[in-house]
Design brief:
two-stranded antiparallel ribbon, mainly alpha, single chain, 80 residues, flat
Length: 80
Amino acid sequence: MTRRPHLARNLALALIFALGLALIDPVAAGIAFFAVLGLGLWGVPSFRVGDTAVWGQDRLWAVQQALLQAPGSSNLGAVT
């Protein structure tokens, strides 16, 4: 079994943030929660570009590919 302590830490941070938002504005917290789930995302950080939805900073390569393949991206240079 592969251990991934960063996943537990990220989940804990997301829960702390969500709890804080829920205490400040429970309606906004509920709307934000279901909006994120509706996009097929969860966790922090989550990224969505077009039909590409990924979770985690180790998936930035997928975000880059989606941006480069997006309509109107012909003026974007490669990110190095």
